[in-house]
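Changelog-adjacent note: as of this version, every example in the card shows the full chain rather than a window. The one below runs 123 residues end to end.
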Amino acid sequence: QVQLAESGGGSVESGGSLRLSCALSKYRTCGYEMSWFRQASGKERELVAVIGREDEDNTRYADSVKGRFTISRDKAKKTVYLQMNTLKTEDTAMYYCKAREYGTLSFCGGDYWGQGTQVNVSS
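Full-length structure tokens:
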């Protein structure tokens, strides 16, 4: 079973920065598109940023974070990062990492989620 472990959350003042990490383990010989989602209290989970499979590496972002957040990956470490700059109070949420598995092998497929890491931004 593919596993994801997020880290790097915490409390920061408005305007500050944090870097979240998502380490992929027990992965298989498949490709992985990686995403960050967030869910604020009382709200639905929303997509924050996506980075394509290792052979594509294209990225896209929610409008609310464009120019402030950057998603990247370290292929050797099987880790994806979310660099969050100029944080705002509205960025406060639980942040989740998701891996979407692709591949031509029959066992490749499915979505996997991490447990989440909390980000609190105070004014």
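Structural remarks: The radius of gyration is 14 Å.
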